[in-house]
Amino acid sequence: MASGINLAVIPGDGIGPEVVAEGLKVLAAVLPSEVKLETATYDLGASRWHRTGETLPEAELERLKAHDAILLGAIGDPTVPSGVLERGLLLKLRFAFDHYVNLRPSRLFPNTPTPLAGRPDIDFVVVREGTEGPYVGNGGSMRTGTPAEVATEVSLNTAFGVERVVRDAFERAAARPAKKLTLVHKNNVLVHAGHLWKNTVDRVAREYPDIVVDYLHVDAATIFFVTQPERFDVIVTDNLFGDILTDLAAAITGGIGLAASGNINPTGAFPSMFEPVHGSAPDIAGTGKADPTATVLSVALLLRHLGYQAEAARIEDAVTADLAERDAATPRTTETIGDALAARVAN
Amino acid sequence: MASGINLAVIPGDGIGPEVVAEGLKVLAAVLPSEVKLETATYDLGASRWHRTGETLPEAELERLKAHDAILLGAIGDPTVPSGVLERGLLLKLRFAFDHYVNLRPSRLFPNTPTPLAGRPDIDFVVVREGTEGPYVGNGGSMRTGTPAEVATEVSLNTAFGVERVVRDAFERAAARPAKKLTLVHKNNVLVHAGHLWKNTVDRVAREYPDIVVDYLHVDAATIFFVTQPERFDVIVTDNLFGDILTDLAAAITGGIGLAASGNINPTGAFPSMFEPVHGSAPDIAGTGKADPTATVLSVALLLRHLGYQAEAARIEDAVTADLAERDAATPRTTETIGDALAARVAN
Ligand SMILES: CC(C)[C@H](C(=O)O)[C@@H](O)C(=O)O
Ligand SMILES: CC(C)[C@H](C(=O)O)[C@@H](O)C(=O)O
């Protein structure tokens, strides 16, 4: 645990700045006074791109490296061509800082609405690979815009990349009471990548005889997410399947207003980055309707990563308590929710 | 409309033969006596592979071409290495017969259980591309099984392939009352394939000014499937996203026991193939627990494709009526359900 936290903040686009403000408020409130919090805000996202054409200049990337961690709000705006900010900023950060564990816990809190009848008991965590797979940006198009166009997307998978994230997932499963790990892939169709994943999990599993290991095709996994989500404990999966599954996971556990994530480099070689799963939601930006809880829970993941276990737990307890008292009929503003959570953790 | 139907039947593995038997029973019952039904059964699947090592010999493929349509039960067995039958038989058929429209309607029938609270009004159809994308089998691995392994999967997308399925989807949307088409992709990450899809939809949309066109990232689409499925009418999407979304669609509309599909070659150059969305479910094979309704509804799609609109409607009405009377507490066998549906369509 550091004697202080040197945090990079990337508020980003849309509701990003609003939710990040509340995340920082709660972070400041929960930290003991002897822990010094320093923050540096980075102006990255749509408005920077419009102004300068830059997404993430190398100099900024260098400066970001010096921080203990990064808190990011949301990236993306309809005025920017699709992919420019996602590839040039968000994914660039995940790749440059080797965030190979994209950690996305899902828990259905009491009193939280779920679209599922019968309110199943949901408490699992998705360990999504963050630096490989279909996300590598390897592909292209030729005869673009003509009737003879061909466009490719290449999923790159390495034993190195798969094994390290699989090991991380086994460690997380070992630390949880249910001790269950489910690999999700599509190895009956994507046979080469699929077999690499399956063989890696089978091999590492021999070192963890206490952990029950399961395999599901991604299509079948979506079925179980809505019919039997209690069967999941730790899920390990590739970058794209993890993207899809974690949005669905968010939907069944109260919506993306609550879903937190960490882009983690477990080696500590680069700062890890914490962000809500939701996007920039430009349609509600500035209205005070955004729920900052996902960002606040991302701050808890950040604290856990930096070794502040007690503070992380205080935030999670505060969220649980706050959610227990929420009344869907009387929605609160972004700021009101942030204030309430800050007050709870300060106690 | 042909004066007879020359049908190829591939019962396949697991529950495949059981559900196909009921599908054929209903087909025989619904056809007017002047329509001659000829069937030829093809022994393809796990047991053939175990016996001969063959998945789909060229001679069988040639023979299959002569039929008006194909009815398939299910392919896949745990005793066969993952991918062998899927790639060597099921996908080989879809690719060889250029089944570029993989049609998967989803409707929540009255009295049918859904995991979703509030029983939303679900009635949409997914037009899944069937011959391109990540399913082409273009990829490989090197240094396989070593710590230096690299495995790739290449998604191939062509203007030719995308445009023809997009046009088919627009035609289907034009024929439906809601007149809405949603493209699902991930064009903020898979930018090359994504832009080809998006640009194609935008261009074709200009020919259909009455159709409301929408775009969703695949991750966001899974959210709306469980929170707001009534927003969908026709969905057009790539092969892999379509695979994932249609299992989720099946889950929210009563389960894969009800989900039908058609692998359609709209040009008629090759026979189209109809199959339930579910797999071979080896765990319940032989127990009489399999629900043949998905196969029966696939027979309805088959009839519609061959021009027997009235007969298709009779089957769909029979299923609706049968489902309305089902009582979850007293489950019926595969055969009992088939008998009940056959009796209803014969009336
Ligand atoms: C914005 C997008 C690039 C991103 C992703 O696909 O990873 C988002 O959906 C997420 O899940 O964090
Ligand atoms: C069995 C498998 C190859 C197949 C697919 O992925 O298309 C199945 O899941 C389906 O949806 O028909």
From TrEMBL, chains A, B:
Domain of life: Bacteria
Cross-referenced InterPro entries: ICDH/IPMDH, IsoCit/isopropylmalate_DH_CS, IsoPropMal-DH-like_dom, LeuB_actb
Chain positions of site Important for catalysis: Y135, K186
Binding site for Mg(2+): D219, D243, D247
Cofactor(s) needed by this chain: Mn(2+); Mg(2+)
Bound cofactor: record note: Binds 1 Mg(2+) or Mn(2+) ion per subunit.
Ligand binding (substrate): R94, R104, R128, D219
Main location: cytoplasm
Annotated pathway: Amino-acid biosynthesis; L-leucine biosynthesis; L-leucine from 3-methyl-2-oxobutanoate: step 3/4
EC number: 1.1.1.85
Keyword entries, A-Z: Amino-acid biosynthesis, Branched-chain amino acid biosynthesis, Cytoplasm, Leucine biosynthesis, Magnesium, Manganese, Metal-binding, NAD, Oxidoreductase
GO biological process: L-leucine biosynthetic process
Record GO cellular component, one term: cytoplasm
Residues the entry annotates as binding NAD(+): G279, S280, A281, P282, D283, I284, A285, G286, T287, G288, K289, A290, D291
Stretches assigned to the Isopropylmalate dehydrogenase-like domain: 6-341
GO molecular function: 3-isopropylmalate dehydrogenase activity; magnesium ion binding; NAD binding
Gene3D superfamilies: Isopropylmalate Dehydrogenase
Enzyme class: oxidoreductase
UniProt-listed PROSITE patterns: IDH_IMDH
Compartments, record wording: Cytoplasm
Similarity remark: Belongs to the isocitrate and isopropylmalate dehydrogenases family. LeuB type 2 subfamily.
Complex and partners: Homodimer.
Function: Catalyzes the oxidation of 3-carboxy-2-hydroxy-4-methylpentanoate (3-isopropylmalate) to 3-carboxy-4-methyl-2-oxopentanoate. The product decarboxylates to 4-methyl-2 oxopentanoate.
Annotated protein name in UniProt: 3-isopropylmalate dehydrogenase
Organism the protein comes from: Streptomyces mimosae
Gene: leuB
